[in-house]
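Minutes, project check-in
Item: structure for the 297-residue chain
Input as provided by the requester:
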Amino acid sequence: MNKAVYKILVPTDFSDQSDFALHQALHLSQIVNGEIVLLYVLHEKKGILGKIFNSEQKDSFNDLILSKLKEQSDIIAEKHNIKVAIELLHSTSISSKIVEYADKIQASIIVMGKGALMVHGAEVDGIGSNTSRVLRNSKIPVVTVSNARHSLGCNHILLPLDLSKETRQKVSWGIQFAKLFNSKIHVVSGLWDTDKDFVVNKINAQMKQVVSFVKKQGVDVVGEIIVPEKGKEGVVSVLSSYMTKHPEIDLTIIMTQQEDDFTEFFIGSEATSFIRGAKCPVLSVVPRKLDEVVLGM
């Protein structure tokens, strides 16, 4: 690795999802011999804590949070022999502080709970507002975790393809993670314009090229081109259908931002929609210049 320490930033609010994310980060840390940084950002609405609590009360509240962070870090250090740093920060914007702190400590990746949405008092599939903002603004990869089932290990990776120039980056990310976790890659592409021979030929050629390249890297791989049913042509529908048929999928890799000069496989609302319904962790990455280091390694 090029970096002396592979830092995994885990924002927490002590919820179940945060604990699931911590378990995922723990497993990753064991594989890359990395360090976990457990972060709690205390939300202050324009200094409202200072208006409600006196200095002594605020200190007591901070001590309670730090005590909980230390309790979690001590358990991990004792049980798994992994270094865990803890940090408590105050901010009027939780997501901005997470992104800012990740940059400050030169974190390699952020692993966090997907969050949840409440509708009429009931929890529904969704992305919490803080997670959504981190996904949009983070300069480093973000893994979102929603449940315990996929919080330990990563045996099967779903890699969606399109015809954009960033396909090479997606494949690189897939190979990196597959080698880390000894995973199998599932390369999937949707085919909508079946009446356009040049599109069909290009997608078939790309699939063969990608599968061949991944195999040459020593990674187990399967490829499938899906012709969706009428009325279910959307990217999210295609991938959700594949994941339903393949519940063994542990991680999906997507790109979440669009450059001006290309059309990405996932753009804005589609990325959000997919992450919202995903039952497995999703690795969201921002398109980079191809000469930049992948995975911080």
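Outcome recorded: Residues 258-267, 289-297 have pLDDT under 50 and may be disordered.
No further action items on this chain.
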